[in-house]
């Protein structure tokens, strides 16, 4: 009897659990359905957008009782994740507010919380989108116009704060200005006096801003044929044009106009007071930028007219294309399809605008928003989808960029050459090379011949030398890269008289016979050191160096590294295997910075015709800690490397070295923080009596102290690296300027352009790192007594965050 009762009760429990699981599963299904309905509204459909919105508003209203929080969160997520459909969602919120006033209020409150959190955590792009959404909510009768204007006033008041960087006030002014195309007409009609006062304050701010930073961010130094405007100046000119047109524009889709009868009856909400968080020295604000312009209406042969550079439509279209790229950058096929499905594509020259926006991002200084390869792969995808039109627009853009390359920033020339080489490699390297043949007669240091040569060098990495020879006309012979090969001087004619030749051949035989590192070192021990005044004592420890020796042994390094790289010259893998096997010897031979520089010089002698091999080998030597970053920097600035100094691969090595040093510091920093967190957690557990013998190993205070010492050493090494780089720049530029002044010749030579802009590039590409040491640089190197041309670069950099 009792068993039957127990069984029956068990069955009831099982049934109850199953019903509970079913209900949970049903809830999840409904939530997923709601998310799908909300996120997909506004996409292609057999029904009109208006009927879809009306139907969705009714569905959501019915589900508010059970799924209100979920619905609110999905809508808030759409505000920042699907900004291209902003007007669709403001209309939906307007319809929900008309049906359920409390729901509208709760949504606005949640959005305001998100805005405050975004401003507090420095998520400025999200904050800008929320401000814009709130502005459009005024049009949907969700928010009172006066309360939005109060929020705008609070943002603009940031310009009156004392002791703040200009980038802070810039962002708050930009957040307001970028929302005006959506809401200005409504504000003008309902709050004209207050709105005009706001505009006057903005105008006053724009006219008084410092613009020292602008030259550092320009793609071109010339304003011909298109002015290179600072972003706030350009947007303000577009806003003033919008004002002259009585706040009417032709680009924004406003689905809420169809529901005006319903929406105007709705009660509106007043925004709470929103005070921008006070300035914090640790806050990083978005950097200023210069607006990129490549086309105007005369460049578009036929069809729709390209909007003028100061028309608000130009800003709105570019902003929407930028949004599509941000939303879809992880998948090039989806991104290309979304771009070509642009809502008003028949009213604008879409291909021209897509190409201009993509190049504006590729050339954006300091760094592009996404990997450079993204733009190359996306442009190829667009060419595939529109083979009849996109390749022609891209070819026209390439010709225009090439024609204007003389005034283009060095960083942008480098990115342009990388993109063009990649693009050509996907189209059998076909190009109208004859049109560029005049560059073959120019000074090879001028931008045009330099660009063509660098394109061929990069293209050769993606192909092979003979293909490059066959690709370009014979007239380009002077610009075709040398065939990559290794130079082994100990096998050349006359090598018999060189010191070390016999040992080099013995070493080759020994390594081919699979000798041990110790046996290889025995062969090197009898080589005389050219730096010694007299021959050293012949008694060496097998792997040691006598105390009386100089700091390094150039002949040993030269012989051993030459042999090793010669034997590993078949491929990268062979070279890596050789370095790995004899890592210990390399570390011993190059245990001082002078030795490391000599090792790098020897590598250059062997592989001077193979730039990619040098780039890869230096990276490997840094990774295996055979050479230090400071040694690489000193080698690149050495007199032996002067003929190579303006070649792009040198700076590829330099930037890779800085990044590798940065990664090492970041890793050590993370390790210290993780160790401290573990120790704190363990101490809390111990205090609560929850310690477990099986807990993972807990770092002690001594271990953390040693880790902090390693971190401090790495940070000092990083600081020293930047000091070396900037000091050497100052030395070579000062020397050049003094010589030019002494000889009464123009200092602005092609060499000077490459070098001064490389200095600027180091500042910009590594701006976050360099800002850590800005006070040291200011007090030690960039003082008032150095030449103004050099100091100006430093001042422009400082102005980026001032």
From TrEMBL:
<keyword id="KW-0175">Coiled coil</keyword>
<feature type="domain" description="MIF4G">
    <location>
        <begin position="31"/>
        <end position="243"/>
    </location>
</feature>
<dbReference type="GO" id="GO:0000339">
    <property type="term" value="F:RNA cap binding"/>
</dbReference>
<dbReference type="InterPro" id="IPR027159">
    <property type="entry name" value="CBP80"/>
</dbReference>
<dbReference type="GO" id="GO:0005634">
    <property type="term" value="C:nucleus"/>
</dbReference>
<dbReference type="GO" id="GO:0006370">
    <property type="term" value="P:7-methylguanosine mRNA capping"/>
</dbReference>
<dbReference type="GO" id="GO:0000184">
    <property type="term" value="P:nuclear-transcribed mRNA catabolic process, nonsense-mediated decay"/>
</dbReference>
<dbReference type="InterPro" id="IPR016024">
    <property type="entry name" value="ARM-type_fold"/>
</dbReference>
<dbReference type="InterPro" id="IPR003890">
    <property type="entry name" value="MIF4G-like_typ-3"/>
</dbReference>
<dbReference type="InterPro" id="IPR015172">
    <property type="entry name" value="MIF4G-like_typ-1"/>
</dbReference>
<dbReference type="GO" id="GO:0031053">
    <property type="term" value="P:primary miRNA processing"/>
</dbReference>
<dbReference type="GO" id="GO:0003729">
    <property type="term" value="F:mRNA binding"/>
</dbReference>
<comment type="similarity">
    <text>Belongs to the NCBP1 family.</text>
</comment>
<feature type="region of interest" description="Disordered">
    <location>
        <begin position="1"/>
        <end position="25"/>
    </location>
</feature>
<keyword id="KW-0539">Nucleus</keyword>
<keyword id="KW-0943">RNA-mediated gene silencing</keyword>
<protein>
    <recommendedName>
        <fullName>Nuclear cap-binding protein subunit 1</fullName>
    </recommendedName>
</protein>
<dbReference type="Pfam" id="PF09090">
    <property type="entry name" value="MIF4G_like_2"/>
</dbReference>
<dbReference type="Pfam" id="PF02854">
    <property type="entry name" value="MIF4G"/>
</dbReference>
<feature type="coiled-coil region">
    <location>
        <begin position="658"/>
        <end position="724"/>
    </location>
</feature>
<keyword id="KW-0508">mRNA splicing</keyword>
<keyword id="KW-0507">mRNA processing</keyword>
<dbReference type="Pfam" id="PF09088">
    <property type="entry name" value="MIF4G_like"/>
</dbReference>
<dbReference type="InterPro" id="IPR015174">
    <property type="entry name" value="MIF4G-like_typ-2"/>
</dbReference>
<dbReference type="GO" id="GO:0005846">
    <property type="term" value="C:nuclear cap binding complex"/>
</dbReference>
<dbReference type="GO" id="GO:0006406">
    <property type="term" value="P:mRNA export from nucleus"/>
</dbReference>
<keyword id="KW-0506">mRNA capping</keyword>
<dbReference type="GO" id="GO:0008380">
    <property type="term" value="P:RNA splicing"/>
</dbReference>
